[in-house]
Amino acid sequence: MAGPRVRFAPSPTGYFHVGSARSALFNWFVARQHDDGVFILRIEDTDTERNREEWVDGILSAMDWLGLDLDEGPFRQSDNQAQYATSVAALNGGGYLYYCDCTGDDVAKRKGDNKTPGYDGFCRDRGLDQGPLTALRFKTPREGVTTVPDLIRGDVEFANATIDDFVVAKSSGAVLYALANVTDDRNDRISHVIRGEEHLSNAPKQMMLWEALNDALHEDVALPAYAHLPLLVNEQRKKLSKRKDPVATESYRDQGYLPEAFVNYLALLGWSPRGDEEIVPLATLIEQFRLEDVSHSPAFFDVKKMAHMNGEYIRSLTPEEFLAQSAPWVNPWSSAWRPTDREPGWSEDQFDEALYAKVAPLVQERVATLGEIPAMVGFFFSDGVSYDETAFAKSVGNDPLGQTLLAVAVERFSDVDWRADALHEATIEIGEALGLALRKAQAPIRCAVTGTLVGPPLFESLELLGRERTLQRLRDALARSSQ
RNA sequence: GGUCCCAUCGUCUAGUGGCCUAGGACAUCACCCUCUCAAGGUGGAGGCACGGGUUCGAAUCCCGUUGGGACUGCCA
User: Fold this and answer.
1) Which positions on strand B lie below 7 Å from a protein C-beta?
2) Does this chain's domain A81-228 share its CATH topology with A389-481?
3) What nucleotide is nearest A48 when CA is compared to C1'?
4) What residues of A act catalytically?
5) Nearest nt to the A311 alpha carbon by C1'
6) Are A313 and A261 in contact (CB under 8 A)?
7) Are the CB atoms for A101 and A130 separated by under 8 Å?
8) CA-to-CA distance for A198 and A349, rounded, in angstroms?
9) Which one of A180, A191, A272, A342 is separated from A85 by 20 to 30 angstroms, measured CA to CA?
10) Which value does ipTM take for this structure?
11) Closest alpha carbon to A257 in A361, A341, A372, A344
C-alpha cells in the first residue's frame, strides 16, 4: 500500500500562526514516518481580498526554518481555477446545486425565531437561473446522518438536517473554500486530512461534496481519513487569536528560539512521547508520533515552558555551534539572516569577534533565548557603561564602603596579575580588609564595570575586558559617585 | 439559540478496569552549591469537575449535571 499523502493548507492572511505550525508539523510527521509518505504545501489563496504575497513568503520561510521540507508544492489555489470550474459544472449538471439571490439581510430577517441553522433553503425550490447576484448553493440532504470517522476522536455524527445549504460559489463566480479544498484534496489524492478542530464542523459538508463529485464526475476517489487536532488556546482558554495573542512563529525565531526546540515543544502540545523524557530528538518524535495518540482537549501555548526547553537546547550546543547560532543577534552585519527589530547595543566597529568567542561560553549557560545575549554582553563592546541607576545607587552611589572598595580596587588592580584567578584572590583580600565577604565585595566592582548587579562571572569578564578598560571604568564609577 | 467537541496538579501531559499511596515536565516554595545571575542537585506543596450507575474493583466503561471551547460568512 502506498504511503500517506498529507497536506498543509494555510491561507496567507497574516503571520505564520503557531497553531498552523503545529498542524504543519503533525502532517509532516505522518509523511516522514513512511519512506514513501508525501508532504504537500497548498496555499489556500482563494480569498483575494485578504491574501498578501508577503504572507506567502512568511509561510515558506517559517517552514524552512522549522525544517518542514516539501515533497510536492507549494501549490496555489489561485492556479486551480479551471479545476474548480469543472467541479462546479459537474455538480450543477448533476443537480446538486441551485442558484440563490438572497442577501445576508434577507436570510437574517427570515430567520427570526426559526430554529433552522444558517441558511433556510429559501431558494432551493425556486428554480432561479443564474444572474448577476446569484450564488450557488449545495443541496444538503434533509434526512439521514453523516458520520465523520475521525482518527483522533472516533466517529462524529452530524444529522444532515442540521447542515444548511452552504454556498459553494459566490455570485462573482469565485469558488469558496469548501469546494476548492475538496477539489484539491481529490486531485492531490490526499489520504489524510489533518487540521485544527475548528474544521470539524466543515468535515461533513466536505464529505458530502466529495461523494457528490464522485457521482457527478463518475469517479471513485476514496475519502480521506480525517484527524482534527485539539485547538491551541490562550490563558483565557480561547482559541489563540492572531490579533490578541503572540502567535507569530516569526517572532519566536526573532527572539532566538532554536527551531529544534520550537519543534520539540510544539510536538508536546496535544501529544507526548513515550517515557518521562520530554526533550526528544526529532527522529524519535517522528518515529513515535501517532495520530491515534493525540489528545482531545485544547492545549495552552506556554511560552515559559518553551523558553525553558530552549535553554536546555542552547546549553546542549557545542561552543562552536553556539557561536554560529548566536551570530545574527550579536553580529548581524556579517550574518546572512538577521532578526527583525533587534539591534545589538553596539555598532559594527565596536563588535570584536575574537572577544565574543571568548565571552560566549560565559553566557551560553545563562540564556533561555539567543535574543537575551546582547543585553548580557553589551558592556564588552560599548565604550562607556550604561548604568542601571538602582543598582548603582545601591552598590556604589549610596554606599561609602562601596566607594572605598572601588578606590582600593583601582590601586590593587593596577599591578595584579591580569588573570581571573588572581583577580578573584585580590578581590577576596580587598573585601577582607574592609570586613566584606566576597559576595558583598564583588558587587560594587561588578556594577562599576558592567553597569548592573547581574551578569556573567565577574573575574573572567574582567580578564577578558582587560586591565585598562577595567581601571578606567572603576575610576569613572568613582567619579560618578561623588557628583 | 442550534450543531459539534472537550473535562487528571496553576500549565502541558502519563494513565485505556486492579501495577495509582495518581507518574513526569514547566511554573512555584525551601534547602544545597555559589563572586552576582543563571544552570545544576535535593526535597515540598499542588490534580482525577460533580452526581448517579456498571463491576469483586473505577481517573479509566455508561448516563446525567455543571463548566469550558469551536462552528454557526457570497472567510479560510
Assistant:
1) 1-8, 10-16, 23-27, 35-40, 68-76
2) no
3) B75
4) 242
5) B39
6) yes
7) no
8) 51
9) A191
10) 0.95
11) A372
Residue that has been written with the C-alpha cell 515558506 in this structure: A60
Spacing of A247 CA from B35 C1' in Å = 40
Fold type of domain A81-228: Rossmann fold (3.40.50)
Q: Residue A147's beta-bridge partner residues?
A: A157
Per-domain residue ranges for chain A?
81-228, 389-481
Distance A43 CA to B3 C1' (A): 29
Residue A461: how many CB atoms within 10 A of its CB?
Answer: 21
> Gap from A316 CA to B45 C1', in Å?
31
CB A325 within 8 A of CB A258: yes
CB neighbours of residue A188 within 10 Å: 19
Return the nearest residue to B40, CA–C1'. Answer: A365
- Choose among A228, A229, A233, A230: nearest CA to A300: A233
Q: What is the pLDDT along chain A (483 residues), one digit of tens a residue?
A: 689 999 999 999 989 999 999 999 999 999 999 999 999 999 999 888 888 889 999 999 999 999 999 999 899 999 999 999 999 999 999 999 999 998 888 787 777 655 556 788 888 998 888 989 999 999 999 999 999 999 999 999 999 999 999 999 999 999 999 999 999 999 999 999 999 999 999 999 999 999 999 999 999 999 999 999 999 999 899 999 888 888 999 999 999 999 999 999 999 999 999 988 999 999 999 999 999 999 999 999 999 999 999 999 999 999 999 999 999 999 999 999 999 999 999 999 999 999 999 999 999 999 999 999 999 999 999 888 889 989 988 888 887 888 899 999 999 999 999 999 999 999 999 999 999 999 999 999 999 999 999 999 999 999 999 999 999 999 999 898 776
Distance separating alpha carbons of residues A188 and A184, to the nearest angstrom: 6
**DSSP assignment of A313-363:** HHHTS-HHHHHHHHHHHH-GGG-SS--TT---SS-TTT--HHHHHHHHHHH
End-to-end CA distance of chain A: 82
Phi, psi of A260 (to 5 degrees): -60, -40
d(CA A113, C1' B51) / Å: 35
Residue by residue, DSSP assigns A383-399 as SS----HHHHIIIIIT-
Q: What are phi and psi of A216, to 5 degrees?
A: -65, -35
- Nearest nucleotide (CA of A171 to C1'): B74
For the segment A381-434, what is each residue's pLDDT rounded down to a tens digit? 988 888 998 998 888 888 788 889 999 999 999 999 999 999 999 999 999 999
Q: Which fold has domain A389-481?
A: Arc Repressor Mutant, subunit A (1.10.10)
**What pLDDT score was predicted for residue A22?**
98
